[in-house]
Amino acid sequence: MPALSPVFSPLEARVHSFRDNANFGDYGPTLILEHQLEETSFFTLYGHLSRASLRDISPGQKIAKGQKIGEIGPETENGQWTPHLHFQIIRDMQGHEGDFPGVAHRQERAFYLNLCPDPNLVLGIPR
Predict the structure, then answer these.
(1) Which of 50, 66, 85, 88 measures 20 to 30 Å from 120, CA to CA?
(2) Residue 115 · residue 102 · CB < 8 Å
(3) Does the pTM of the predicted model rise above 0.85?
């Protein structure tokens, strides 16, 4: 996606946490939202955002479905990646705030596949 493309929340949420993970090859500016569907809560992570995306937000802030939550960051801000969005569903944050593993060792594959279901469950992108 081109840098500065808008990013919208697919569901009603509240801000769980955010951080600029500014290391080379990391997520860069990252936002994590918490969602509640009936009795189930889960989280969505948005990585490689612009730094401006982290302005004027605070933990606990309510986010409406479809609300703009930021924009795709340029390489100079997003961990030196080609502009894109890292979107991840997370069942349990395991104590993390503003960050969460996006890659894992092959031996941990089953654990993370269970903890982080297919993001297309929320995105609904035709395959």
Answers:
(1) 50
(2) no
(3) yes
